[in-house]
Amino acid sequence: MNLTPKEIVEYLDRYVISQKDAKKTIALALRTRYRRMQLSKELQDEIMPKNILMIGSTGVGKTEISRRLAKMMKVPFIKVEASKYTEVGFVGRDVESMIRDLVVSSIAIVKAEREEENKDKIDNYVINKIVEKLLPPLPDQATPEKKDDYKKLLKTMEEKVIHGEMDEKIIQIKFDKVNIEFNDTNLPPEMAKVQESFSKIFSTMNKEDNKKDVTVKDAKVLLRQEATSKLLDMTNINAEALRRAEDGGIIFLDEIDKIAISSKSQGRNDPSKEGVQRDLLPIVEGSSVTTKYGVINTDHILFIAAGAFHLTKPSDLIPELQGRFPLRVELEALTEESLYLILTQTKNSLLKQYEALLSVEGLKIIFEDDAIKAIAKLAHKANEITEDIGARRLHTVIEKVLEDISFNADEYKDKEYVITSKLVHEKLDLVVENDDLSRYIL
Ligand SMILES: Nc1ncnc2c1ncn2[C@@H]1O[C@H](COP(=O)(O)OP(=O)(O)OP(=O)(O)O)[C@@H](O)[C@H]1O
Ligand SMILES: [Mg+2]
């Protein structure tokens, strides 16, 4: 995708309030990769991505930014939690598996593109297969007139299948191979190969009974898989996917602060955390990782790390790792104004979600502007008095305001319910003012 930095920021603005610096830095990093791809191969090899470290307390939009990017970008993108990994040799996922996951995500993108390009071919394949089952074949010695009739019959049957008129009919379809898909990318490639041969053996063993009675409706879905594996060149797709992951892949490494070791907690250092950091070094720096689909070089993969760094600081990461994230951006704490904007300006905001949910019950709720301001104000206050949990506070606050209405929604069927600032204060004032209560409830 070749969006300009401005366009990327504009897109993010629709979902994430404030955090200008973070958006700008990320948008620029993405554009730089696009610029790099336009250069000669020689220069391309020289230009390394500048990885980003996002720092900001909890609930200010770090994960939200990445989630939105992932939806928008058509590049291979995965979001992983650093705290999920363990040092090589320990039980658990090793860090290289994130590269394998990236390749899998890349394959999904390329495959979807090819399926779209070959949509007609795939549709034809599926329809023909189904028609074959519905119409018994004509004997070879049939007269020319019979053959003509048969052709017409085929045509009408095709139409019927396409328009769903035959959907309820039962046909028997044969599965070429038993689809025992092992998608555990955590396995090292050698193991994955072993597993593959196992599934091959299984599929030959099951050759006899891999016929199934299904409705035409289901067959349309089931035969698609067969069609794509027959019509699409998977080797080519894999190669293209590897290339795209190498040149355009982005890994969002969330919760990186969880693998930093606080300098204050001397003596209780967790060796495995430091091990994970060390394991990360070569991957972030650039190295070759073997996957089931081939070897991938991680030189040009962009890493965006994020963490709240409440208990630890970026400087608590081992120096080598710090150095590999040269771009630092801090996300601001959310003000009352930002909280108000999050409620009113974002697409699919919380208020819209509640409105939609309650409309299912036939209840139309209307938030007065003053009420929304009051919600933002009280949420901000609660953040100040207890802990600052950012925009997440809005969830608990609104939940509290709507609790009774939501519970009794059936009584308000086909009615309107106006949420006023008076109501908001009634529901929340006592709770927010009382330190203990708000800790407990909000
Ligand atoms: N700046 C923002 N604009 C819009 N919504 C936001 C913003 N910040 C947070 N939110 C909302 O708050 C919730 C939590 O945000 P998010 O998951 O991004 O927090 P985070 O910064 O990753 O926190 P943590 O460090 O705890 O992981 C999400 O539902 C998100 O939609
Ligand atoms: Mg997060």
Any overview of this molecule?
It contains 18 helices and eleven strands. A five-stranded parallel sheet has the order 2-5-8-1-9, with helices on both faces. A two-stranded antiparallel sheet has the order 3-4. It has helices at residues 5-13, 20-37, 41-46, 62-72, 96-117, 119-134, 144-162, 189-205, 216-231, 234-248, 271-285, 319-323, 336-345, 350-359, 369-385, 392-407, 421-433, 435-441; strands at 52-55, 77-81, 170-174, 211-215, 250-254, 288-291, 294-297, 302-307, 327-330, 363-367, 415-419. Helix 15 (369-385) runs parallel beside helix 17 (421-433) and helix 17 (421-433) packs across helix 18 (435-441). The two termini are 41 Å apart. With 442 residues, the chain is an alpha/beta fold. 55% of the residues lie in helices and 12% in strands. A hairpin with a 2-residue loop joins strand 6 (288-291) and strand 7. It is globular. It folds into three domains: 5-109 and 242-330, 3-Layer(aba) Sandwich (Rossmann fold), CATH 3.40.50; 112-239, no CATH class; 336-427, Helicase, Ruva Protein, domain 3, CATH 1.10.8.60. Bound molecules: adenosine-5'-triphosphate (ATP) and magnesium ion. Adenosine-5'-triphosphate is lined by residues 16-19, 56, 58-64, 308, 342, 346, 390-392.
What is the secondary structure topology, with strand pairs?
Elements: H1 5-13, H2 20-37, H3 41-46, E1 52-55, H4 62-72, E2 77-81, H5 96-117, H6 119-134, H7 144-162, E3 170-174, H8 189-205, E4 211-215, H9 216-231, H10 234-248, E5 250-254, H11 271-285, E6 288-291, E7 294-297, E8 302-307, H12 319-323, E9 327-330, H13 336-345, H14 350-359, E10 363-367, H15 369-385, H16 392-407, E11 415-419, H17 421-433, H18 435-441
Parallel strand pairs: 1-8, 1-9, 2-5, 5-8, 10-11
Antiparallel strand pairs: 3-4, 6-7
Bound molecules: adenosine-5'-triphosphate and magnesium ion.
